[in-house]
Amino acid sequence: MKFIHLLSLIPFIGMLGMLPFVNKIEPYVLGMPFILFWIVMWVVLTSVIMAIIFKLDPNNKEGDTS
User: Fold this and answer.
1) What is the CB-side half-sphere exposure of residue 28 using CA atoms within 13 A?
2) Which helix (H) or strand (E) holds 28?
3) Please, where are the H alpha helices in the chain?
């Protein structure tokens, strides 16, 4: 497995692995309880990380074969 594919583990660890440590209602961030903010933040960060993986993956640099 390539190193760039290991980047896909970051959202998994951030969203599920860190959940017991951030399981708090207060403080409120942007009007949301902290736990809800944490989950929304990781949904957005997951999209960013997947876009980075897509750009760095050399398999995507080839032309369309179909």
Assistant:
1) 3
2) strand 28-29
3) 3-6, 9-12, 34-56
14-55 pLDDT, tens digit per residue, is 888 888 888 887 888 888 898 899 999 999 999 999 998 888
Domain spans of the chain, in order of start: 10-48
How many other CB atoms sit within 10 Å of the CB of residue 33?
13
Q: How far is the C-alpha of 47 from the C-alpha of 26, rounded, in Å?
A: 26
Sequence letter at residue 12: F
Cα 15 from chain centroid (whole Å) = 8
Q: How many CA atoms lie within 13 A of 11 on its CB side?
A: 17
pTM of the model: 0.76
